């Protein structure tokens, strides 16, 4: 298996060879839905004034309807990358393109779920989910009717009148994801949505998220620290190096969908996990 070609430099890590699994990789349209072109980003240290390069000429594409996951060392700039794609941070160099057009303002085009659920204690679940529509100017009744439809799709309708203090951690994350989905944007950015949950709850929510994604077929770019989560959910896994971050591997994941939990026990899954671990380890040794 080989990594994808890059017009701005070839990733330095080559995946080791092993017996290929029998599954076929999903097919997508050739035209990329999202393209990040040669993006660089630096930050100035508040203490000493030194400038630190965080992202170094990042380039990749995401096809429409594709689920791409991103892993990398802690502090490598994964959240910074999502913030640039969301339009919350400007790149120092490079650009972000969606559907063939360079993007300078992405309001209304991208839904972004950050690490915290950001639920207000005084709002019911239904009103939380309806909130993005209300901000867009949709009337209260119409917004709440749409919220109820999303809650049914997400199997959360029984929680509609409850408040955050009565919800478990997993339920809060489901509500936060439903709130992101209702915005109707074609691109969904997820920043470690399950990172603070226990292992069992996280596995359940991974399977639940895949089920929702298969129904909705939104384009998803998700950051995670969990290699198994990246493999289980992703059509491709992008591996970032340590700072200054670059893409060292773009690994297609060919397992058939829907994916069963026990796919993690297969020889092919273990081999892919080893490939990603070696990509991360090789970059660490380089430093």
TrEMBL record:
Query: SMART domains in the record, alphabetically?
Result: AAA
**Highest rank taxon of the organism:** Bacteria
Q: Which residues form the ABC transporter domain?
A: 34-267
Sorted keywords for this record are: ATP-binding, Nucleotide-binding, Transport
Molecular function per GO: ATP binding; ATP hydrolysis activity
Asked whether the keyword Transport is assigned, the reply is yes
Q: Which is an annotated Pfam family here?
A: ABC_tran
* Record InterPro entries: AAA+_ATPase, ABC_transporter-like_ATP-bd, ABC_transporter-like_CS, ABC_transporter_ATP-bind, P-loop_NTPase
What protein name applies here?
A: Hydroxymethylpyrimidine ABC transporter, ATPase component
Source species, please?
A: Candidatus Carbonibacillus altaicus
């Amino acid at each position: 298996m080989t990594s994808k070609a890059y017009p701005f430099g070839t990733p330095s890590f080559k995946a080791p060879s092993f017996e290929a699994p029998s599954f076929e990789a999903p097919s997508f349209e050739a035209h990329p839905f999202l393209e990040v072109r040669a993006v660089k980003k630096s930050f100035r240290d508040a203490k000493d004034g030194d400038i630190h390069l965080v992202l170094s000429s990042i380039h990749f594409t995401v096809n429409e309807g594709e689920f791409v996951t991103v892993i990398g060392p802690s502090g490598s700039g994964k959240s910074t990358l999502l913030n640039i794609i969301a339009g919350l941070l400007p790149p120092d160099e490079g650009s972000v393109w969606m559907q063939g057009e360079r993007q300078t303002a992405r309001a209304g085009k991208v839904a972004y779920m950050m690490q915290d659920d950001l639920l207000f204690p005084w709002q019911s679940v239904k009103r939380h989910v309806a909130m993005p529509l209300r901000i867009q100017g949709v009337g209260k009744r119409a917004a709440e009717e749409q919220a109820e439809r999303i809650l049914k799709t997400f199997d959360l309708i029984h929680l509609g009148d409850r408040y955050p203090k009565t919800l478990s951690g997993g339920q809060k994350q489901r509500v936060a994801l439903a709130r992101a989905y209702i915005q109707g944007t074609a691109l969904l950015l997820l920043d470690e949505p399950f990172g603070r949950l226990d292992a069992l709850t996280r596995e359940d929510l991974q399977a639940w998220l895949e089920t929702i994604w298969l129904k909705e077929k939104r384009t998803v770019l998700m950051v995670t620290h969990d290699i198994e989560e990246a493999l289980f959910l992703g059509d491709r896994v992008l591996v970032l190096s340590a700072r200054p971050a670059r893409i060292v591997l773009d690994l297609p994941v060919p397992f058939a969908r829907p994916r069963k939990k026990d796919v993690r026990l297969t020889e092919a899954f273990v081999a892919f996990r080893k490939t990603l671990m070696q990509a991360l380890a090789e970059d660490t040794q380089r430093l």
